[in-house]
Amino acid sequence: MSPSRVLPDERLAAGAARLVTSHRGRFSTETVQRVITDSYERLAATARVTTHLVVLVERLTAERLDALAHIEGSQGSGLPRVLFVCSRNAGRSQLAAALLAHRAQGHVTVSSAGTHPAAAIEPAVAQVLTEAGVPSGETAFPKPLTDEVVQAADIVITMGCGDACPVVDGRRYLDWPVAALEGAPMAVVRTIHDAIDAHITELLDSLPSTA
């Protein structure tokens, strides 16, 4: 790999090399290093525990590069891309993303992000998903909202982030007025789950390619 950029953590080099290989002919080493450095700085700003930080940075970078490739038309499955956005990406948007990914069964590309991401996902999210028989996504983590994922999305669904949510011309925007679940008792979290699930039923009905 070209030493064109000094990575903020030497442990990122292996991940950067893997991403360069997977995107060979699509993105330069410099582009991958730029995105992985930016991803590291964004996640490190909110991380309470840095044990798995490098792994999460590689995952975030991979998602951002996939979105960038979609924007540039260099790859893409043609599947509708749905992005859920809330303030902390720790509750509602994570719950919605997990439910849609489960119910769409591979027919939708799903992502989520936060305008001010938290350090960790609310434990209630995993609990209510487990109760519903939905994979809880142990690898999920709060992610910052970046330009690439917004521009790559066909549908952006906002969930309480207000004016902080960006608007990109040509995207379909929906706002789901669902209560925040942070700190709520499980009875309330289950009600929020049901409300989100009802919205997802309507969304899936509006996407013919998911049939």
Summarize the structure.
The protein has helices at residues 12-22, 29-44, 53-72, 92-104, 123-131, 147-152, 186-205; strands spanning 81-86, 109-114, 155-158, 172-175. With 211 residues, it is an alpha/beta fold. Helix 5 (123-131) crosses helix 7 (186-205).
Describe the structure.
This protein has seven helices and four strands. It has 211 residues and is α/β, with parallel strands linked by helices. It is globular. The chain starts with 11 loop residues before the first helix and ends in a 6-residue tail after the last helix. The mean pLDDT is 88.
Biggest β-sheet description: 4 strands, parallel
| Inertia-based shape | globular
Structural class: alpha/beta
Widest β-sheet, arrangement of strands: 2-1-3-4
How many E strands?
A: 4
Mean pLDDT, as a whole number? 88
Residues in helices, as a percent range: 40-55%
Q: Low-confidence stretches at least 5 residues in length (pLDDT < 50)?
A: none
The secondary-structure element order is HHHEHEHHEEH
Tally of alpha and pi helices: 7
Distance between the termini: 43 Å
Rg:
17 Å
* Amount of beta strand: 5-15%
Oligomeric form:
single chain
What attributes does this structure have?
alpha/beta; 4-stranded parallel sheet; 45% helix; globular; 211 residues
Secondary structure topology:
Elements: H1 12-22, H2 29-44, H3 53-72, E1 81-86, H4 92-104, E2 109-114, H5 123-131, H6 147-152, E3 155-158, E4 172-175, H7 186-205
Parallel strand pairs: 1-2, 1-3, 3-4
Helix pairs in contact: 1-2, 1-3, 2-3, 4-7, 5-7
